[in-house]
Amino acid sequence: MSGYKPVAIPSYPKLGEKITQDTLYWRRYKTPVQIKEFGAVTKIDFSPAQPISYAVTSSTRIHIYGQYSQEPIKTFSRFKDTAYCGTYRADGRLLAAGCEDSVVQLFDINGKAALRQFSGHSKAVHVVDFMSDKYRIVSGSDDYSSKIWDIPNGTEISSYKEHTDYVRCGCASKLNDGLFVTGSYDHTVKVFDTRTEKSVMTMDHEHPVESVLLFPSEGLFVSAGGRYVKVWDMLKGGGLLLSLRNHHKTVTSLCLSSSGQRLLSASLDRHVKIYSTMNYKVVHSFDYAASILNLALAADDEMIVVGMTNGVLNIKHRKPEEKKPNELPSRKHPRYRVFVRGKDYMPKQDDFVVSKPVRKHLRKYDRLLRGFQVSAALDAVLEINVKNGTPEITVAVMNEIQRRGTLKNALAGRDEKQLSSILTFLIKNVVEPRFAPILINVAEQVIDIYSSVIDPVICNRPTIPEAPRHFRKGNTLSRRTSGSVGNDGHSLCNYDE
């Protein structure tokens, strides 16, 4: 008995999400705070100035929220119709927005009334951004045109009308004060230089463009439309680098993490995907309750704010880093070094190592298998906590019993409750590729042994006859006591009467 070798439980790859540094980083957000707005949230923009605040454009209002405030600390409501694209200037002192009545309005962040109103578009203005010189504004409208406005004089400087459909997204360069990008529902993305009268680059996105984004170096930019996120190389004349298709519905918003090494995309499929900008593979994702229209990240990724079609604003704050107190190392008792003496000693080539025998404690199923109680061992691994928590142990014991050639003996003579437990386990796990080869064989053995009992049910007879005499003991099927297996695959054992 001392030479018994315990059942080897094979290790299978763990199922589920792989824990990576990105997973740990993006999971460090608290339970979200939700704020109900008056309408669908179409634009979220964080102020570049401290303290952290952000502008939320919804319905006919632009609300300014503080970092932890659940009520707006300021509201701009001087709009006759729906407001669009409330955007901060680089110094955080001015805010510009478009609206449905074709006017671009400029606000002082500390005031209420509009400082400037720029009129010139003939339809709704959905795109507004500040040029990098801080004294000009670029706008895009449903009248297919893009315009440059002079802030001090309140006049139009130039106008571009090369798109053939609504201009619904755009952004201005932060490095070049004359460069801006627009995206349109005519499936094209155009790059303009204010020193020229025409666009300098045109890219075909092949779907209505919902969002464009320039990388910090501005050598690359990203466009989103349809289910596609496409990356373009500005330095190669707008050549397509790659096309990503990880969403199931239209991608509506793009943004970059504070480090610029992660790209985030939000979609109507209620998901936010996070890509590594090294290989553009998805490293993490968030799920939300409704379709997402806009997404924004605060500096240092302290907050992630999402606006949805149902008018709900979802805010997640990052948990603070856990600071461990400077604890003094606990003092060890003088006897401690006696017990650990020689623990780290590495034996040399000529040393003779005397090891203390270690007593192995066998598990319940191993003790039963050592005593050749295969039926009881199978019962032990069919307990609920074992078969549901660690099904690989149940399968390994079945495999060991099959290897011994006693699988039919272990399965025979089961009552209705025991047989139901076996069948439940088989039905649940036989589809697992890890367990299928063994469990299919077990299922065949069960059918062979109990076919005479279940045949009447399969044939749809009006009544089920009594089980054969050698299967009965009261109202249950009795266990085998001894015997063998016949040529037809049925047990020919002697059963208790």
Automatic annotation (TrEMBL):
InterPro entries: U3_snoRNA-assocProt_15_C (IPR018983), WD40/YVTN_repeat-like_dom_sf (IPR015943), WD40_repeat_CS (IPR019775), WD40_repeat_dom_sf (IPR036322), WD40_rpt (IPR001680). WD repeats lie at residues 118-159, 244-285. Residues 470-497 are annotated as: Disordered. Keywords: Nucleus, Repeat, rRNA processing, WD repeat. PROSITE patterns: WD_REPEATS_1, WD_REPEATS_2, WD_REPEATS_REGION. SMART domains: WD40 (SM00320). It comes from the Eukaryota. Residues 344-454 form the U3 small nucleolar RNA-associated protein 15 C-terminal domain. Pfam families: UTP15_C, WD40. Residues 475-485 have a biased composition (Polar residues). It is found in: Nucleus, Nucleolus. Signal peptide: none annotated. CDD domains: WD40. Ribosome biogenesis factor. Involved in nucleolar processing of pre-18S ribosomal RNA. Required for optimal pre-ribosomal RNA transcription by RNA polymerase I. Part of the small subunit (SSU) processome, first precursor of the small eukaryotic ribosomal subunit. During the assembly of the SSU processome in the nucleolus, many ribosome biogenesis factors, an RNA chaperone and ribosomal proteins associate with the nascent pre-rRNA and work in concert to generate RNA folding, modifications, rearrangements and cleavage as well as targeted degradation of pre-ribosomal RNA by the RNA exosome. This is U3 small nucleolar RNA-associated protein 15 homolog. It comes from Staurois parvus.
